[in-house]
Amino acid sequence: MVIKNIFAGLTVGIIALPLSMALSIAIGVPPQNGLYTAIIAGIVAAVFGSSKINISGPTAAFVVILIPIVQEFGLQGLLLCGLMSGVILLLMGLFKLGNLIELIPYPVTVGFTTGIAVVIATFQIKDFFGLQIEHFTGHFHEKVHTLFSSFSTFQINEFVVGATTLFILIVWTKTKSKIPAALIALSVVTFFAFIANAYWGQNISTIASTFAYEIGAIKGNGIPPIPLQFTLPWAELSLEDINLDLFYKLLPHSVAIAILGALESLLCAVISDGMTGNRTNPNKELIGQGLANIAVPFFGGIPATAAIARSVANVKSGGSSKLSSVVHSLFILASIVLFAPYLSYLPMASLSALLLMVAWNMSEIKHFKNILQVAPKHDVYVLLTCFSLTVLLDMQIAVGVGMGLASILFIKRTIELYSIELLNTPQRETLHPNVPEDMAIYDINGPMFFGAAQSALRTLIDSKENIHVVILNMENVPMIDMTGLVAFKSIVDNFKAKDKKLIICGLKPRFIQKFKKVGIEFDNINLKQASNVTSAIDLVTP
């Protein structure tokens, strides 16, 4: 068992190593920050979280939401955002909000993930084709315009590197080999890119030619070959910069990161539980993710969450305990210390090809098309709204609107479960042989909250003038909120004003106490109570 988990950890580590660098580069920060994230999050989230097999680290889902943070606040702002999102995730777990996250409708999550995939794939075009773009900023449509206007700088050698990497990734994946496709593709292409640069005079962009580092007195290009270093996330900010204004600016971003991280982690837990038969505690998992995101910024790491692809690879490689996640982190740490100079030879076009593959795998194209074809129209509207906002505007806006749409959709469908039905003559006669003509019997089913309460209010107040007695059967009402209670108070007052009698039957004891608190008292004249409909009819029949 231990050997299997060690092997699974090494396998996932091989996958996570280049992917962590690629995701870090994708958001605009040096590759080592992604590696530091995988190391710390992989250990902390595994130790303190609930899932035995989830692998945490930087994920593609975060790319869209982190890019604008880096562009506006820089790396230090991103680290502070990650720290704040960790605190929010921790509070979500402590207040047991994990179960609520699971209520997010499927069209919302598919809209997010497909939109994120489109944005990630679009942003990889620059390095995949070797385009020379000095300032690759702005909204999605502005970046697309910049890409099209820069195709005159297309470099064939970069494209060949990217296309070859993508080809090997696709072909090797189809072989079903246990050796990760990324290891084969990146190793082969990096070797030939090194030869082309060193001996054939090519100028293929690599990590070493793109990134430089300066840590104390140590300077160099590529990835610094030193282990983790503890640093304060706000170390490079002046005291004047650290104020409430900065906190207010970062808070919306932090909330969006926390919500998206919670969604991704719990979705990953659901998938991995389905593969292994385990049962993840969602609240404990959020606590683990919160602690991981609190710890990561102190080592220069970016926000992290459980990664679905890496977790699935962990299961398929034989991972069954938290040991595999720890081994995966230690492998990445050892790779930094021992192989940093060699990792720096990785071509930028190859990393962009790797992210194109990731974008395709997370795009959920089949599910997206299936929802468009077979889902109810409201689900389709929600899907297209979340997708469009994610792509065209901002992930922060998309998360807020998506959560709002999820709530509205939930409320709408809950209201649809509610019904107030007037029993017809045959139904009335089956309940009691002597039902007066001036009596109306209503059967209420479902929760009475604000949407349903207004429907009940209109139905009862609009009852015909020749009706003098109304019986409400509330045996199948599981819940009444404050709006429902106020609506009932209006009904009672209206009936008293018209000198009509109202009999409520099947009312649960806890509802009687709520009625009293809002001033509804059973007086046995206008407002009576009965145990069931038959007893209610007996109260007014000779």
List keywords for this structure.
542 residues; single chain; elongated; Transcription Regulator spoIIAA; 63% helix; 5-stranded mixed beta sheet; 2 domains; two-stranded antiparallel ribbon; 9 strands; alpha/beta
Give an overview of the whole structure:
The chain is an alpha/beta fold and 542 residues long. It is 63% helix and 8% strand. The protein is built from 23 helices and nine strands. A five-stranded mixed sheet has the order 5-6-7-8-9. A two-stranded antiparallel sheet has the order 1-4. The mean pLDDT is 88.
Can you give the mean pLDDT? Answer: 88
Q: In which range does the helix fraction lie? A: 55-70%
The total count of strands amounts to 9
Tell me the strand order in the biggest sheet: 5-6-7-8-9
Cα radius of gyration in angstroms: 30 Å
What coarse outline follows from CA principal-axis ratios? elongated
Largest sheet: 5 strands, mixed
Whole-number count of domains: 2
Unreliable stretches: none
| SS field, number of helical segments | 23
Q: What class would the helix/strand composition place it in?
A: alpha/beta
CA-CA gap between termini: 78 Å
Beta content: 5-15%
